[in-house]
Amino acid sequence: MNDPTPSTDDLVPVLVRLGLVPDGTAPRLEPLTGGVSSDIWKVTAGGRVFCVKRALAKLKVAQDWRAPVGRNANEAAWIETARRIVPGSAPRILAHDPEAGLFAMEFLDAERHPLWKAELRDGRVDPEDAARVGSALARIHAATAGDAEVARRFATDAIFHAIRLEPYLLATARAHPDLAPVLEGLVARTAATRLALVHGDVSPKNILLGPDGPVFLDAECAWYGDPVFDVAFCLNHLLLKCLWNPAATPQLLAAFDRLAGAWLDGVAWEPRATAEARAASLLPGLFLARVDGKSPVEYLTAEADRDRVRRTARRLLTHPVPRLAAVREIWRTELAESRTQA
Question: Which structural domain range is residue 31 located in?
Answer without folding.
Answer: 11-106
